Structures are given as C-alpha cells and as structure tokens.
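Check this:
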Amino acid sequence: MAGKDSVREWLEARGCPEHLVKGGLAGLVAGWERTVGSVVRGYGLGMEDYLNDMDGRQLLHEAMAVASASVRGRYLQRVRAADRRIKARLLPPGKCLWGAREARARGWTAEINWWYFQLPREGVRS
C-alpha cells in the first residue's frame, strides 16, 4: 500500500480484525450501506447482531474523525445518504440499546450517536 492511511493505522491500533483494517474507510462505509439495506428490507436478525451492526456505525463515526479531510470528503455524501435511509425506518429515539450506564461511560448521546438509541420499525428478533 503506497502512502500512509490514517484510518487503517487507527483500525489496526484498535485491534480490529484484519478484514476491517484491510477494508479501511471504504470497507466501513460499504458495511454500513449493507446494514442499512438489511434494515430497509426488514431486519431479520437478533438483537446481538443488531448491536454489532450499530457498533460498526460507531466505528465508522470514529474513523471519519481520524480520516484526512480529502478522504472523509470522498465518503461523506454516501454516509449521509445511508443515514437518511435508515433513519426513515427507525423508531423515535429512546434509551440507549447498550444501557444508560454504558452511554454515560462512553459519552454517547441520542443526538450524536443516534444509532445506539433507535431500533428498526420492522425486524429485530428477540
């Protein structure tokens, strides 16, 4: 890989699996778009899978902050479009899916980390 990739380096430093490191920001964005598609179709997996998918959105949020402005700019419109698509399929904000204690400890808010405070209108199995 030519040149430095701050997102891949950050993912590696966090101990993320090799496939996430290799995919970098492009992979995180594509993964979020796949998750959004599955929610739009009616999420058919359980809560553990859903939380894992929302952890992917959190990782994307943090990776965007690490990316250079030019790299971030390449993906920002795709992320915003995917966010708009999924928000139309989610229930209004409620309590943090990981619990209030975890939200406080990590500084998550329903305004910034909205993905942890909403569930799909259709889908998530118990």
Notes: The helical segments are 6-13, 18-42, 47-66, 69-87, 100-106.
